[in-house]
Design goal:
The chain has six helices and no strands. The longest helix is centred in the middle third of the chain and has 14 residues. The chain has two domains: 45 residues; 43 residues. By secondary structure, it is mainly α.
Length: 113
């Protein structure tokens, strides 16, 4: 369950002030349809970190912009300039480099290449 920032802070404060426990949050905010496990996870996180924010580095790792990936795609593209009429498709480049088509499109439309 995704909590808004306002509710995260409210839950944190109410729990730290010993006003509410996990099951009471579910009863008091029944219209929000929060699950008990989601409230437990949020309270555990706030007890451990004293924060409602994401921990640094806890998100998905972005491997698309690794220099090696950029270099290999750039090399493939530049090698085609001298051989006119022999261009490779996105699918072919994806197969050769092992990078997904979606990630390649991100590379093509970003300022990296």
């Amino acid at each position: 369950m995704v909590f808004s920032e306002e509710y995260k802070v409210l839950i944190k404060v109410l729990h730290q002030e010993k006003v509410m426990e996990q099951k009471k949050f579910i009863k008091e905010f029944a219209n929000k349809n929060w699950s008990l496990s989601s409230v437990k996870k949020l309270l555990t996180k706030t007890d451990q970190t004293s924060s409602v924010d994401h921990r640094p580095g806890s998100g998905k790792k972005l491997t698309i912009r690794i220099a090696q990936n950029v270099a290999s795609v750039k090399e493939l593209l530049l090698s085609q300039e001298s051989a006119l009429g022999t261009h490779k498709t996105i699918r072919q480049i994806a197969k050769e480099t092992g990078i997904s088509k979606a990630k390649l499109l991100c590379l093509f439309f970003s300022d990296v290449l």
